[in-house]
């Protein structure tokens, strides 16, 4: 069996096991959950290291037919697009299981639901079969509903619960229709993505068909990713959800739609994609600017973070909309980076909430004094959130900007994106830090206690991953690049026009190490005389 | 006598009888549902009996003698007796004249009107040049058919009757201990 | 002619009689256990049937083609058997709400209704169609109004009676017109001659009237009006059987009439079918939305599900009919699970409001799980049976949209409406889930004692729901073979 | 002209619709039920006349079934109405609205 | 190129120390501070070794590829040439001294470890800016510098003012960075590379490569400098930044970070066309003037120096704009010496005064803290451009450049500013050190410990001799093509080459000092407001720029945010979604009304259904 099956299988298996464990064996329940997710995280790292960049086709493939009459099969495998996502998902899953310490009542149910969610989404990312791709993602819907319902916070709980559930199912259903239509139109009589791709390569879909399938996928997935103006479920939902849930959701599940767009919509329906991209680009302005401004207005820390994470989706969409190697790679980078980041921030706010019982920023303040570790971590998270170099997010955002800029039609939007990333992001993040962490510490918070080792673990883990990929992005880009290149190859004719006119690539291209030095020297010599 | 036979042969008599029975049936039908003089269910029931009887007459004109008999026995006999029994049992008094909701009436009439019109319209498309009828609905042929081709439905109906029997007992038994 | 084909039906009727007679020999206080005999007997029959022994799965016709035993029939017969067995289990739980003296009759009537359904499954001419439908309907008149002590039950009975009689009057008249114009009662023969009557208005009128009669049974718009009241008033096991058995019987007959008897006619009516299914979906879901009474809500939702099933009819292709069969199979376990919980939990409450489920998750995890899974499956969410069924239905419609010429947009609208319906339904189904897990109403946390059979039933239902959601192969193949023979 | 199939069918159709009207207009359950019987009879008439003019007996067999079934139905129905009347002391449809909306 | 890995070590040591401190030694002040100081001092030593090995006049690069996506190539690359070497000296040298100084200054603050961690982080990122060989790497370091300054300004985060100042600095810098990255994108889009050498080669090969967008691109890149070097209109953050500990003010907001803008301009000068440079120079001149005027009426010892920093930065930017990178870098270096010196002395004064910063509570400190007094004096003289101190030479070269470019307007501005500089510097000098004590803090003031005074002395030495030890040579050799290397003597007498600016410079400086002497010799309150009236208040209130921005930029953003918030809450959430939910619910409730429970209605509906069905199928 493929390692991927194990990565996704352990959590699901653990969920099943927990069903039979009596509910008062709390330690055992936690133990099983943490162990399972730890194993799958470990396996994910192993898989990530063993992954061979740029080898054509998928790796760690496993396939079993499931319903041969419909051409549905359990088919998993990774290439550059999802290898990082699976790694991210597994790590975040582990972290969120650790953060589930904060759940005090009815743990058994909670862990079962959480593990189902984790396993499902990991498998969904690994799946190369349209049907399972959808099927496994939907496993998370009911857990989300129940988790927010039972363990959620605040008085808007019920409203938020139903809103998030309905939005997610609307999006999912629209996407489902898109997928079915794709299956029917492709005529491959198979849900297998590679098969469909081949089939369509041989005889492409009619532009007409593309033009009604693509919007279905775009908006279906878009709703799942809280594309403006379908975003309003996200901040509220994350604000009321218990932090492990919002970690998984904002961190991992949200990436599903984007992954779907890149994996399915872009390569299979090039003409439609190309003509829809301008609309997408303008919608993502809504995410970046509008939602950014909305975030500035928030009084509740979680709502602010939720809005900011919606705003971040805008950059990913921008990257996708640029339809070129740099932009799409950047989009994938942000997807991974934001996964870690969102999980981190929600974990931290969850800790603060458990300590203080509120996230109203007006009531907090000066927490850095009593919670140095949490405070510092939150500071770092905020900085990463407004695109500070050193964190993975910066790499992604910068890449996206370069990608978008090399698409002349997107110049304006790129600039808007810059403004959103650098200024607006900076403003609300620093404001939040100022009110929550800086300033005098109110009397009532003198009793707060900083995280102990076990509590620190998830935060440290997530921060570490942010740093690793932020400082050495080649770990990811080398894997992502070749496969993105395959996808955007379709659009090359389009791009050839817009690619920056540069005669210097040859000189700039092969210069690493001190060879560069000498190269530069000669040029300088020319310069100086 | 002589010319009467001629009339029979030419079918004039049948026609006359048809019109008589048809008129009778419809008239009684009308009186069943809307009787200007009395709204008591009893009168409705009596007119229903008449309607059934005259239908039996039409059956005879259609040479369905056995069915005519069954019609009289089962419907005009058993069923209507049952009705009357129930009416007596419940000694339903005169249905007090409640105000008929005008909207309901109009809409009802409208829909029924539509149905009638559609029926009649489509009736017009029926092809009329059928060979002169020769079929005789006598008991032998009917019974033969019933016990060869239609055995299964016949048996099922027997089960159905059993069910009905049980049901009626269960529903109308004074007290189930 | 091999009348041995009907051995299954005959033995079922025999079981019914035995149950009825058992009344004499069993003391009143033990009578509720009579049904376990019936369950065992039916179970044995089912096993024989599934194992393929006996001659239940011999394909062929009998009684001059009036009776046909093909894939479709076999599929539905197994379906009805399972349904009846589960309903009997529910009835056993519910028995203490029935008059002690009549329990045995209740069970036997269920079995007779089953017999009617079995005949319906393999009826191949209009006479059979008529008598089997009437057998089902008349049995249900009694079953619905069985709780004589409750006004609601009687009232539901009368409503069902009058409207049922009305619909069968239309049905008869329809049959009369069809036979009158074509001179054929047998479906197979009809299929041969029907094309030359396609223009004859009176023939089409007859077909429409037959459809009216069947539409009433499956509670399709505009003949759905009876469903909520009857579902609410009837004793819970009856409601369960009504929701599953009678609806399925309606569908098998619908499939026979539309696709075996009159395929050529049906092909011209895609618009009509599309409209009906669309309105049915919307109507059911919209009305269920503000509903607080659980049984009534399920009544409305059963209308919606009839609408979803009609998607498969409207698709006018084999995959659509296979989807209908699959969906019904899922619907069987899902609905029966829900009614089992209702029968057990809400039996003692005077009203069957959703609030009655408050705190169920603490009172009885098993029942809570059962109800949740059933609701989620009804809402059509993976990995449960309901999802795969809806998936197949939608797929068939999209395929139809691709195949058809001129009606694409109509089909796309149909899909859109179906989606709307699903989303609305998610709202009210999840409301039930909410009531189970957290709610503002006062929760009595007295744990519920479950009898072993009830536990068994719950587990069977859950297993069925998951099985159909996760391992669709077996049933899907069966369904596809079934429609393969039913539709040429 | 000669009396033919049309005339019989016309009669049966009118009878049928009379039944419909009765169901809509009358409020007494028993009378409504009688109207339903009228409709069944209309169907019977249609069948018989068809069978006469198509020279096929099947229609009459069908009528035979219909009459039997109708009888059974009537029996059950009347029993039901009686049971209801015992509870409610009324056979008026307006009094049967405990379940609505 | 020998020891080519040494620069990497120089760059990474501070980062490592920062990491080590945050991860392990936050508990112990001692170890942390030693690690941090060690890192930067080691950096200085290694710089010396490296330069000795390779000489200063060479240029090379060492790079490893960091990110390669299609035609986006970013290297982790170091550009090693005179410019970066000199800056290395400044950063590690002056930085090292300030590190040492802070050990004394901060040693009773309980979160000293955190302080040194941030300091190391800053040093790392500053070195990053200096050594970066491509735009993106420089931008990265640029951002990191911004954040470390944010951390250090907000070091005492419990003080609301500190928090606010940090926030302000960060956001203002972000505004600049926005333009900077925008410009970078533009350049990359047109030239297809980020590497400085490659770009320079390209631009030299074909100066018109940037085409129409040359001016815009240049100005956008200049925006970065505007933010970091606090040029008008983004100058508002620097004075507030004085909320940070004094060493921070000295290191970041005087010596190094604020100079980064100027450095960046010199590094990328080849990109700027004439118009862009014009604009830059005027911005610089205006800033210089504005800041000098503000400085005249400040009463906080640190703020006065801060404003003078502003105005000196204005000088540098102006002269860069006047196509004189050499004078700019020259002045940058000397300024680093004497401004650091002034700040540190001010710091020791503040410490001696127990954190009293208002100059009107000081006075007569010359006896109590002699060393500080003398070092400060040297710094003041250097700043006011009195020969033979370093400031004289660099400032003179600037004035000369102005004349050389025939830009008389800017020349006169520069001269006037020189006068003002001398005036406010010595205003401060007289009020603080001479005259009588104006508070009892002043009476009990005491000299600072050796660990603080030693750096003062070293800096003082450099502030004195900095003008003629070949700094200008080293810059010039790279920056100005026709630069001839001068011997020591030539350097000493360099100003005589351009007598006019020299004489005017000295003249106005002396005049300024004299005026200050007249006004503030043992004055115990400021006589100026009486004389100047409204103008004085305007100067004191910084010409109301903060208020202006408060009223316009911030308000506007908040307003838009409010509008979006409203739309999100009420239109999108409330109206639209509410409408859909309510609408569906209402439809359901109204459809339900047909379910009257009345059998007759049902029968009627049934029949009506049949009628409609028949009608539509058979009639229509």
Layout of strands and helices, then pairs:
The complex is a heteropentamer of chains A (529), B (177), C (488), D (101) and E (620).
Chain A: H1 3-20, H2 26-50, E1 59-67, E2 72-78, H3 80-99, H4 107-126, H5 130-138, H6 141-151, H7 157-186, H8 193-202, H9 207-224, H10 233-240, H11 243-268, H12 270-297, H13 301-322, H14 325-356, H15 367-370, H16 372-385, H17 392-405, H18 411-436, H19 453-471, H20 474-488, H21 492-498, H22 505-509, H23 513-528
Antiparallel strand pairs in A: 1-2
Chain C: H1 7-25, H2 34-51, E1 60-62, E2 67-69, H3 71-94, H4 103-121, H5 126-144, H6 151-182, H7 187-193, H8 201-218, H9 227-233, H10 236-261, H11 263-267, H12 270-288, H13 294-315, H14 318-345, H15 360-363, H16 365-379, H17 385-403, H18 408-437, H19 452-470, H20 473-486
Antiparallel strand pairs in C: 1-2
Helix pairs in contact in C: 1-2, 1-4, 2-3, 3-4, 3-10, 3-14, 3-20, 4-5, 4-10, 5-6, 5-10, 6-8, 6-9, 7-10, 8-10, 9-10, 9-13, 10-13, 10-14, 12-13, 12-18, 13-14, 13-17, 13-18, 14-16, 14-17, 14-19, 14-20, 16-18, 16-19, 17-18, 17-19
Chain D: H1 5-25, H2 29-54, H3 58-88
Structural write-up:
The complex is a heteropentamer of chains A (529), B (177), C (488), D (101) and E (620). Chain A is built from 23 helices and 2 strands. Chain A is mainly α. In chain A, strands 1-2 form a two-stranded antiparallel ribbon. In chain A, helix 3 runs antiparallel to helix 19. Chain A is globular. The N and C termini of chain A lie far apart (66 Å). Chain B is mostly helical and 177 residues long. In chain B, helix 2 (12-33) runs antiparallel to helix 3 (41-61) and helix 3 (41-61) runs antiparallel to helix 4. The radius of gyration of chain B is 21 Å and the shape is extended. Chain C contains 20 helices and 2 strands. A two-stranded antiparallel sheet of chain C has the order 1-2. In chain C, a hairpin with a 4-residue loop joins strand 1 (60-62) and strand 2 (67-69). Chain D has one domain (5-95): Orthogonal Bundle (Helix Hairpins). Helix content of chain D is 77%, strand content 0%. Chain D contains 3 helices and no strands. Chain D has helices at 5-25, 29-54, 58-88. In chain D, helix 1 (5-25) packs antiparallel against helix 2 and helix 2 (29-54) runs antiparallel to helix 3 (58-88). Chain D is elongated and about 50 Å long. The interface between A and E is large, with 80 and 79 residues.
């Amino acid at each position: 069996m493929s390692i991927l099956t194990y990565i996704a299988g352990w959590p699901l298996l653990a969920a099943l096991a927990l069903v039979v464990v009596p509910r008062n064996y709390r330690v055992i329940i936690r133990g099983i959950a943490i162990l399972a997710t730890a194993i799958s995280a470990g396996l994910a790292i192993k898989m990530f290291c063993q992954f061979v960049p740029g080898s054509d086709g998928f790796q760690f493939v496993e396939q079993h037919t499931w319903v041969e009459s419909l051409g549905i099969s359990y088919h998993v495998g990774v290439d550059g697009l999802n290898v990082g996502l699976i790694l991210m998902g597994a790590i975040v899953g582990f972290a969120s299981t650790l953060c589930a310490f904060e759940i005090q009542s009815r743990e058994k149910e909670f862990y079962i639901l959480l593990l189902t969610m984790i396993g499902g989404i990991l498998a969904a990312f690994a799946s190369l079969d349209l049907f399972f791709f959808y099927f496994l993602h939907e496993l998370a819907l009911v857990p989300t509903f129940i988790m927010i319902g039972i363990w959620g916070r605040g008085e808007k709980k019920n409203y938020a619960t139903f809103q998030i559930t309905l939005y997610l199912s609307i999006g999912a259903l629209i996407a489902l229709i898109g997928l079915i239509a794709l299956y029917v139109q492709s005529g491959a009589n198979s849900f297998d993505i590679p098969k469909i791709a081949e089939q369509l390569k041989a005889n492409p879909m009619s532009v007409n068909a593309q033009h009604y399938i693509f919007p279905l996928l775009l908006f279906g997935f878009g709703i799942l990713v809280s594309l403006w103006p379908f975003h309003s479920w996200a901040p509220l939902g994350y604000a009321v959800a218990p932090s492990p849930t919002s970690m998984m959701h904002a961190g991992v599940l949200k990436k599903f739609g984007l992954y779907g767009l890149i994996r399915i919509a872009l390569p299979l329906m090039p003409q439609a994609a190309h003509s829809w991209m301008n609309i997408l680009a303008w919608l993502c302005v809504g995410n970046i600017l509008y939602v950014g401004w909305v975030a500035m207005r928030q009084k509740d820390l979680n709502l602010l973070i939720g809005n900011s994470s919606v705003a971040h989706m805008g950059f990913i969409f921008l990257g996708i909309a640029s339809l070129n190697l740099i932009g799409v790679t950047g989009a994938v980078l942000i997807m991974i980076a934001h996964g870690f980041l969102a999980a981190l921030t929600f974990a931290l706010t969850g800790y603060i909430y458990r300590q203080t019982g509120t996230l109203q920023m007006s009531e907090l303040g000066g927490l850095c004094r009593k919670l140095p570790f949490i405070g510092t971590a939150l500071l770092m998270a905020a900085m990463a959130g407004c695109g500070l170099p050193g964190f993975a997010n910066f790499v992604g955002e910068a890449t996206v900007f370069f990608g978008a800029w090399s698409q002349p039609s997107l110049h304006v939007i790129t600039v808007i994106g810059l403004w959103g990333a650098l200024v607006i992001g900076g403003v609300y993040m620093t404001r939040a830090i100022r009110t929550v962490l800086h300033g005098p510490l109110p009397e009532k918070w003198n009793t707060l206690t900083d995280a102990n080792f076990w509590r620190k673990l998830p935060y440290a883990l997530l921060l570490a991953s942010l740093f690793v990929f932020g400082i050495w992005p080649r770990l990811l880009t080398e894997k992502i690049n070749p496969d993105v290149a395959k996808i955007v190859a379709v659009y090359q004719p389009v791009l050839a026009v817009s690619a920056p006119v540069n005669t210097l690539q040859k000189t700039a291209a092969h210069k690493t190490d001190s060879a560069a030095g000498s190269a530069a020297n000669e040029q300088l010599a020319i310069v100086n005389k | 006598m002589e010319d009467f036979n001629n009339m029979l042969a030419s079918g004039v008599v049948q026609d006359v009888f048809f019109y008589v029975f048809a008129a009778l049936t419809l008239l009684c039908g009308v009186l069943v549902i809307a009787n200007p003089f009395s709204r008591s269910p009893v009168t409705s029931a009596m007119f229903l009996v008449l309607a059934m009887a005259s239908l039996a007459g039409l059956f005879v004109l259609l040479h369905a003698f056995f069915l005519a008999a069954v019609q009289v026995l089962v419907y005009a006999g058993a069923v209507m007796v049952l009705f009357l029994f129930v009416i007596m049992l419940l000694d339903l008094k005169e249905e007090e004249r409640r105000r008929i909701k005008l909207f309901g009436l109009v809409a009802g009439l409208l829909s029924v009107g539509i149905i009638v019109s559609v029926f009649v319209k489509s009736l017009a498309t029926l092809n009329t040049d059928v060979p002169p009828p020769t079929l005789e609905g006598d008991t032998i042929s009917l019974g033969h058919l019933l016990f060869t081709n239609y055995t299964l439905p016949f048996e099922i109906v027997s089960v159905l009757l059993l069910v009905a029997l049980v049901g009626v007992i269960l529903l109308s038994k004074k007290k189930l201990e | 002619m091999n009348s041995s084909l009907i051995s299954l039906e005959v033995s079922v009727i025999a079981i019914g009689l035995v149950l009825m007679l058992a009344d004499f020999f069993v003391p009143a206080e033990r009578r509720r256990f009579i049904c376990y005999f019936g369950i065992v007997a039916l179970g044995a029959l089912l096993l024989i049937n599934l194992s393929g022994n006996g001659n239940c799965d011999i394909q062929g016709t009998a009684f001059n083609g009036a009776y046909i035993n093909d894939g479709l029939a076999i599929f539905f017969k197994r379906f009805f058997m399972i349904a009846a067995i589960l309903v009997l289990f529910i009835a056993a739980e519910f028995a203490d709400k029935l008059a002690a003296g009549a329990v045995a009759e209740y069970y036997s009537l269920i079995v007779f209704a089953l017999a009617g359904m079995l005949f319906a499954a393999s009826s191949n001419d209009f006479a059979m169609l008529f008598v089997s439908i009437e057998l089902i309907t008349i049995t249900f008149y009694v079953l619905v109004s069985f709780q004589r002590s409750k006004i609601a039950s009687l009232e539901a009975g009368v409503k069902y009676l009058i409207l049922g009689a009305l619909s069968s009057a239309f049905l008869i008249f329809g049959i009369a017109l069809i036979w009158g114009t074509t001179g054929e009662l047998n479906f197979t023969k009809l299929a041969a001659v029907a094309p030359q009557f396609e223009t004859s208005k009176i023939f089409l009128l007859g077909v429409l009237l037959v459809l009216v009669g069947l539409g009433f049974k499956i509670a399709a718009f505009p003949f759905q009006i009876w469903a909520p009241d009857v579902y609410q008033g009837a004793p819970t096991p009856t409601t369960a059987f009504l929701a599953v058995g009678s609806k399925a019987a309606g569908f098998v007959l619908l499939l026979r009439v539309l696709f075996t008897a009159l395929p050529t006619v049906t092909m011209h009516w895609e618009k009509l079918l599309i409209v009906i299914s669309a309105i049915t979906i919307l109507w059911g879901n919209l009305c269920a939305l503000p509903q607080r009474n659980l049984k009534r809500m399920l009544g409305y939702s059963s209308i919606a599900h009839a609408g979803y099933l009609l998607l498969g009819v409207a698709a006018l292709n084999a995959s659509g009919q296979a989807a209908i069969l699959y969906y019904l199979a899922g619907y069987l376990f899902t609905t029966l699970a829900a009614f089992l919980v209702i029968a057990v939990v809400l039996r003692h409450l005077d009203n069957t409001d959703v609030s009655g489920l408050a705190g169920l998750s603490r009172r009885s995890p098993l029942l809570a799980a059962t109800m949740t899974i059933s609701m989620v499956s009804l809402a059509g969410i993976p990995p449960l049976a309901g999802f795969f069924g809806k998936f197949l239905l939608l797929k068939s419609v999209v395929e139809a949209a691709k195949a058809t010429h001129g009606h694409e947009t109509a089909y796309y609208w149909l899909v859109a409406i179906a989606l709307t319906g699903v989303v609305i339904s998610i709202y009210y189904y999840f409301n039930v889930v909410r009531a189970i897990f957290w709610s503002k109403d006062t929760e009595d946390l007295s744990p519920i004692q479950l009898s072993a059979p009830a536990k068994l039933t719950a587990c069977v239902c859950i297993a069925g729901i998951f099985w159909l959601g996760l391992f669709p192969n077996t049933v899907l193949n069966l369904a596809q073979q079934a429609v393969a023979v039913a539709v040429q | 002209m000669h009396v033919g199939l049309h005339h019989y069918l016309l009669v049966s159709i009118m009878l049928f619709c009379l039944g419909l009207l009765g169901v809509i207009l009358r409020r007494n359950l028993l009378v409504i039920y009688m109207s339903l019987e009228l409709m069944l009879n209309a169907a019977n008439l249609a069948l018989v006349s068809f069978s006469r003019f198509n020279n096929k007996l099947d229609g009459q067999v069908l009528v035979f079934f219909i009459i039997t079934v109708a009888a059974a139905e009537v029996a059950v129905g009347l029993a039901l109405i009686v049971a209801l009347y015992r509870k409610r002391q009324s056979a008026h449809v307006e009094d049967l609205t405990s379940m609505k909306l | 190129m020998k020891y080519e890995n040494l620069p990497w070590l120089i760059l990474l040591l501070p980062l490592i120390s920062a990491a080590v401190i945050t991860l392990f030694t936050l508990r112990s002040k001692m170890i942390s501070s030693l690690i941090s100081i060690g890192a930067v001092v080691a950096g200085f030593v290694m710089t010396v070794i490296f330069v000795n090995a390779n000489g200063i006049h060479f240029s090379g690069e060492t790079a490893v590829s960091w990110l390669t996506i299609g035609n986006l190539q970013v290297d982790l690359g170091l550009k090693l040439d005179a410019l970066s070497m000199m800056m290395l000296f400044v950063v590690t040298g002056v930085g090292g001294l300030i590190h040492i100084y802070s050990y004394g200054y901060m040693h009773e603050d309980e979160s000293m470890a955190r302080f040194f961690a941030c300091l190391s982080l800053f040093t790392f990122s500053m070195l990053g800016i200096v050594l970066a060989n491509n735009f993106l790497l420089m931008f990265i370091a640029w951002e990191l510098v911004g954040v470390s300054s944010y951390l250090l300004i907000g070091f005492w985060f419990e003080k609301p003012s500190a928090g606010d100042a940090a926030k302000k600095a960060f956001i203002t810098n972000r505004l600049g960075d926005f333009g900077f990255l925008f410009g970078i994108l533009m350049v990359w889009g047109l030239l297809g590379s980020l590497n400085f050498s490659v770009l320079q080669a390209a631009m030299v090969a074909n100066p018109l490569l940037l085409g129409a967008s040359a001016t815009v691109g240049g100005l956008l890149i200049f925006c970065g400098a505007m933010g970091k070097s606090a040029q008008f209109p983004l100058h508002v953050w620097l004075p507030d930044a004085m909320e940070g500990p004094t060493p921070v003010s000295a290191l970041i907001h005087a010596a190094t970070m604020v100079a980064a803008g100027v450095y960046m301009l010199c590094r990328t000068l080849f990109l700027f066309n004439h118009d862009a440079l014009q604009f830059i120079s005027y911005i610089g001149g205006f800033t210089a003037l504005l800041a000098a005027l503000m400085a005249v009426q400040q009463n906080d010892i640190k703020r006065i120096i801060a404003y003078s920093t502003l105005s000196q930065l204005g000088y540098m930017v102006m002269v860069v704009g006047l196509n004189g990178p050499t004078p700019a870098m020259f002045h940058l270096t000397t300024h680093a010496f004497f401004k650091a010196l002034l700040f540190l002395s001010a710091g020791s004064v503040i410490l001696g005064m127990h954190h009293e910063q208002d100059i009107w509570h000081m006075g007569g400190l010359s006896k109590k803290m002699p060393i500080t007094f003398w070092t400060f004096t040297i710094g003041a003289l250097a700043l006011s451009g009195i020969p033979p101190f370093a400031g004289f030479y660099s400032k003179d070269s600037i004035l000369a450049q102005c004349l050389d470019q025939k830009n008389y307007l800017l020349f006169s501005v520069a001269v006037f500013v020189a006068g003002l500089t001398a005036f406010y510097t010595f205003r401060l000098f007289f009020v603080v050190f001479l005259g009588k004590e104006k508070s009892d803090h002043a009476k009990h003031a005491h000299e600072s410990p050796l660990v603080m005074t030693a750096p003062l002395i070293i800096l003082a030495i450099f502030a004195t001799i900095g003008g003629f030890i070949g700094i200008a040579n080293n810059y010039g050799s790279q920056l100005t093509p026709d630069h001839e290397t001068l011997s020591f003597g030539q350097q000493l007498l360099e100003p005589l080459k351009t007598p006019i600016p020299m004489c005017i410079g000295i003249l106005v400086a002396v005049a300024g000092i004299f005026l200050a002497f007249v006004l503030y010799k043992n004055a115990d309150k400021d006589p100026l407001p009486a004389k100047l009236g409204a103008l004085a208040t305007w100067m004191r209130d910084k010409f109301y720029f903060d208020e202006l921005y408060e009223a316009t930029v911030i308000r506007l953003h908040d307003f838009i945010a409010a509008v979006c918030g409203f739309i999100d809450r009420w239109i999108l959430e409330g109206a639209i979604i509410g409408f859909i939910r309510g609408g569906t619910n209402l439809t359901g409730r109204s459809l339900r009304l047909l379910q009257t429970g009345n059998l007759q209605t049902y029968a009627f509906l049934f029949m009506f259904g049949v009628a409609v069905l028949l009608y539509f199928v058979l009639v229509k």
